[in-house]
Amino acid sequence: MEPAESGATEGMSEHEYAAVPRRPLWVEEPALRRRMPDPVRTAAVRAVLIMSLTMILAMVAFLTALAGSWLSFPMVLSGVAGTVVATWSVLDVWVTRQVWNQRNGVVSEPSSSARQLRRERRRARRAARAARRDASRIRHQGADRRLSRA
Questions:
Q1: In the predicted model, is pLDDT for residue 29 greater than 50?
Q2: What is the mean pLDDT of the segment spanning 69-74?
Q3: Are 114 and 102 in contact (CB under 8 A)?
Q4: Where are the alpha helices (DSSP H) in the chain?
Q5: DSSP secondary structure letter of residue 107
Q6: 64, 18 in Cβ contact below 8 A?
Q7: Cβ atoms < 10 Å from Cβ of 94
Q8: CA torsion sign, 89 to 93 to 98 to 103?
């Protein structure tokens, strides 16, 4: 309990009050899971918004049907359309996640195909760098010989 809440600070000077230890407002804790990649998080937020709007449409359709309003038929149609769009948006999250994992590699699997492709590209870059280095050495050696003969 804070000193101010307990009434223990009554009659304290400002200096004494400033010396009273206080607990922090919040304590930082490490995240249990890794953060979602940006494209996946964007798709997930979009899907949640669309799903919430679809649920609101469904509730309005239900209430207008109970009230016998002329709006119930258009609301039911928009609810069906919203359900189709919400399903599409959830599939979009799943596809976006799969595409991101395929392009950037899966961290937890040692047999990741993306990691294998990265290794092969790295080897090819190293071989190309070594070939350029050898070619430049050969060129420089030829230039050295010509300078020494002149």
A1: yes
A2: 93
A3: yes
A4: 3-6, 14-19, 38-67, 72-104, 113-149
A5: S
A6: no
A7: 13
A8: positive
